[in-house]
Amino acid sequence: MVLFVWLTDDTVVPVGQARRALRTYAQTTGKTNRARRQENARRIVDQFAHPSATYQQRRTVQLLIEEGERTRKPDWEKLHSALTALCSPWRTAGVPLLERGIGRPDMPLTVTDSIVLKVAAQRLTARLGAEEVREEDLLEARRVHRIDWAQYEAARSRQHPAGTTPRFFVAPEGVEARAREQVHAYTGTLAGMLGIIAQVATGAQVGRVPF
Asked: Which of 88, 120, 143, 211 has a beta carbon 3.0–4.6 Å from 197's, enabling a disulfide?
């Protein structure tokens, strides 16, 4: 909540306190109980699963995500392969076919894109946990985030990727969930501005994990 207040108001939380809050956020992010891990995994499976995906494909991804969150050391290679099979179950190994994406029809998020963002987030949290990000970068990312977030909120109700990802753009319920969503969006903006996403994406190739 400290970070949410900092993101929405310039007068309450000083940037130094926000930086310490980001350190705490980075050190604790991903630490969840078993029920939360299962719920997070189910949500991701529901987002990516193609209607023709099998129970076994869904279950494999579910277990890989849960284990990755439990250990905080995901097996990106296995997860990428399993998610690809879940998202595009018609693909044939070794044959370059179109890969299904989720989200906006004009800007689909592929499995590779998703893994890139997750790896970038992991690298960013390491830097935030060590307080290696400058305050001026935190402030500039906040400025850009406010613009982007306002545009996203204004367009949110018009996003209807029918047939791909139901409820993908629906706002979460509850103040805490909404605050968590916005902080997560801010860290994505920060990772982009620091060049972390571009660095990870450069090392990624279609059908392969970023490292």
From this structure: 120
